[in-house]
Sequence to fold (267 residues):
Amino acid sequence: MHDARDPLRGPLGRLTRARRLLDEAERVLVLTGAGISAESGVPTFRDEMEGLWSRFRPEELATPQAFARDPRLVWAWYEWRREQLRTCRPNAAHRALARRLAAAPEGRRLYTQNVDGLHDRAHDELACPDGDAEGARPRPLHGDIFRVRCSRCAWHDRGLDPVDASAVDTLPRCPRCEALVRPAVVWFGEALDPEVLEGAVEHAQNADACLVVGTSAVVQPAASLPRIVLQAGGAVVEVNPQPTPLSSMATVRIAGAAGAVLPELLD
Ligand code: APR
Fold:
């Protein structure tokens, strides 16, 4: 509910307040979820997926148990999602974040729950000179659907080629130990990379501000990051067309689509 009569409380006032918070902050943590990729045509996690897959839920297929039980079905689902993503492009929100992080990487970190690789592509398309400055490169909390790893040993690699999931025998195998290769994403019931998570928590504990974009803020441990920033005295700016459990705690909440709001907020 906004009061248009109060310039600082109306949508414009909120955008101004949020811009000022993010411009003045020395250490910023950005957390994104599936919503930031919605305008790129990537269905969010809790959207209805059309066709063949609508009878499956991610919680049923994105698990180690499902992969052990039927690796062909799990790879068929992931290859369907990868096929969709190959035609998707970073949108204005990904690009605005990439510009901002490349222009001022010091003290800024972007953590994403998304596995779609669109933040990386927006970053690579910038071809910024100090591309790998500490704060510029996006950090995936839940892995990357275009990377693969061995289901048994430590082997991993970029996995851009389409996977033939027509039979178990056509699935990719590890070049080192010949076990099945799997998508390098974090499945339900699996732990996040402890080094990545520790880095995110440490950054949140020392952040002056947190920009949260396009997440339902219900899946842990990512959903704790904005709360850690608030507990440490930092400010939280939330961008989401729908309210979430975080909205009532946010310092500034902007009810809008990421593709429209982020260029206004960051450029
Ligand atoms: N701009 C901003 N936010 C949007 C947009 C948009 N254009 N469209 C939708 N949203 C918001 C929705 O309102 C919702 O709050 O994006 C959020 C998407 O929420 P989820 O589908 O729950 O996705 P996410 O929060 O990323 O899920 C977290 O759950 O299933 C696991 O590992 C999976 O990473 C995923 C995690």
